[in-house]
Structures are given as structure tokens and as C-alpha cells.
Amino acid sequence: MNGGTLALVGATGGAGTTRTAVEMGATLARAGRSVAILDAAVATQGLATHVEGRIGDDVTAVMTGDAALGDALYDADLDAPGRIAFCPAHAPFERLARAKTPESARAFETAVADAATRFDHVLLDVPPVAANQSVAALATAERRALVAPATRRGRDLLPRQQGRLRDLGAPETAVVATRADAEGAITLPDADYGIPEASTDAQVPTALDPSSALAPAVAQATEGLLDIDLDLTFPDPGMLDRFN
């Protein structure tokens, strides 16, 4: 099965990388695939907000050798034939500090490789590259996509991250523009895919609803970024071309 490991890398803070990973995971689950989402953004810990119930062991415990990957995976209870398992960051400051060492970064690479043997796809939620765990995510990922909001800030900071990925020998394979239909949104010249802004009252993940504007756009991006065919259907076939 094609797909492998995809790192979704924020071009700036607040780009929507975590939400994009969750929506892509839901899209894969809707198509009957299994997917693990691992959090490399250990400072912001955004993926933890999508885990229901108590979080015990987390990705930083895996990175520091305090837990095995299986102990830090939390299945999402979604109405879909596939499976999503989150490996969030949810830790005290002391462990967060230990998780930023080069040794912990290598342990993260091992965890990603382990996840790739258990799941059809592995998605990595990666912040703007400035720490060891982000570099490790880039090094181990088979594919990399830069995620940038369709704003002036996104446009201005995107080249910086593109340059950083090239410096690391891990250039992006595509650029995803988020909030592509928001009021005041601008065109990102390098964007390969555009994902619309979900309404504030939309259920997350929104992509499980095939009638939403988000669902076909996320499906198109997911198929392109992973080089797969999910064979999903939507009420309006023309919606897939809206953000080309």
C-alpha cells in the first residue's frame, strides 16, 4: 500500500497543522485505512486536545524511554470503518525538556518507524523547524508538506521554512494552504492544495461529513500528498476542483 509517512510542517505558528493532520486522518479512516498521528510539536501539545479521556503515557514518554509506543497510542472513537490513533504530547515541563535532546530525537525516529509497521499511514504533526524533534520528524518522513495559512504572514514566512527544509536536505514535496476561503485570504503562489476554513460550530473532524466543503478538499490533498486513491464519494463532484 502506498502512502508511508507524511510530515505536516507548519510554516508558522498557528498554521493549522494539527487540525490538518486530524482531518486527513479522519479522511483516511473514512476510506477504511488505519493511521497514527504522532505529535512532534511537544511545546504546544495541540494534538492532546483531540484525545478523549485521560492521557497517561505520551509521545515524550516514548522519546525519553519511559514508555513504549503502544502505551502512548489513543484510539479516536469515530464513526468510520478505519482507525485513527493519536500519540499526543501531554507532559510536565521536566519531561518536555528531556524530550528535546538528540537522544530523544533518535528515539522519536524509532517510534515513527515502529508506527509505520503497525498502521497503513503515519502522519507527523510538526511545528516550524527549530528543535531536535522537528529535525527527526523530517529525517524519518518519506514525504513532507509545508502547511501555511492563506494570509500575508503565511506567504511571508513560507520561504523561510522552505529554505530551512532545503538546508536539512529534506525539501517539501508540496505546500498546503489552510483557510483558503476565509475572508481576506490571499493566494499562496507555491500552494499545491487549498483547504477551506471550517465553521466555528462544525464538529471536529469535519471531514467525516462528506457534504461539508472541507471534506472533498482534504480528500484531494490527502490523495495527492500520499499518492493514493481513496475512492471516496461526495455529493457534489465539482467541489474537488474548487481549490485547484
Could you characterize the architecture of this molecule?
By secondary structure, the chain is α/β, with parallel strands linked by helices. It contains seven helices and eight strands, in the order E-H-E-H-E-E-H-H-E-H-E-H-E-E-H. An eight-stranded mixed beta sheet has the order 3-4-2-5-1-6-7-8, sandwiched between helices. Strand 3 and strand 4 form a beta hairpin. Helix 1 crosses helix 7 and helix 4 runs parallel beside helix 5. It is globular. The C terminus is likely disordered.
Please sum up the structure shown.
With 244 residues, the chain is α/β, with parallel strands linked by helices. The protein is built from 7 helices and 8 strands, in the order βαβαββααβαβαββα. It is globular, with a radius of gyration of 17 Å.
Low-confidence stretches at least 5 residues in length (pLDDT < 50)? 238-244
Q: What integer value in Å does the Rg equal?
A: 17 Å
Please give the count of helices.
7
Please report the total strand number as a whole number: 8
Tell me the fraction of residues in β-strands, as a range: 15-25%
Q: What structural class do you assign from the helix and strand content?
A: alpha/beta
Side by side, the strands of the main sheet go 3-4-2-5-1-6-7-8
Report how far the terminal alpha carbons are from each other.
26 Å
Mean pLDDT: 93
Helix-strand topology string? EHEHEEHHEHEHEEH
Query: What share of the residues lie within helices?
Result: 25-40%
Question: Can you tag this structure with a few keywords?
Answer:
eight-stranded mixed sheet; disordered C terminus; 244 residues; alpha/beta
